[in-house]
Amino acid sequence: FHANTTMTTAFGERSVSEVRRDDIVQTLNVQTKRQEWTRVVSVKKHNQLFEFQRIQLSDNSSIVVTPNHGM
């Protein structure tokens, strides 16, 4: 995730850089296609610089992904 990405946590919206192990975050269950609350089991921080691509969505929001994200 890009450092500015926000996640919905049990404590409200937080930057992904603020999320810690054992936090509860909202995720998408890929099998049921429903949102659910999940405990964070590990956090990895990468010090590498990636070139990101911003994708503008039809509702005027945007997402930022690495070029090889596979969308």
Briefly say what this structure is:
The protein has 71 residues and is an all-beta fold.
Description:
The chain is an all-beta fold and 71 residues long. Helices cover 0% and strands 39% of the residues. The strands form 3 sheets. The protein has a two-stranded antiparallel sheet with strand order 1-2. Strands 3-4 form a two-stranded antiparallel sheet. Strands 5-6 form a two-stranded antiparallel sheet. It is globular and about 30 Å long.
Name the features:
single chain; 71 residues; mainly beta; two-stranded antiparallel sheet; two-stranded antiparallel ribbon
- Count of β-strands: 6
Helix content: under 10%
- Helix-strand category: mainly beta
Span from first to last CA? 14 Å
| Largest β sheet strand count, sense and barrel closure | 2 strands, antiparallel
Mean pLDDT: 82
Our Rg estimate from Cα atoms comes to 13 Å
What topology, given as strand order, has the largest sheet?
Answer: 1-2
In what range is the share of β-strand residues?
35-45%
Low-pLDDT segments: none
Q: Could you give the topology of this structure?
A:
Elements: E1 6-9, E2 12-15, E3 24-29, E4 34-39, E5 53-56, E6 62-65
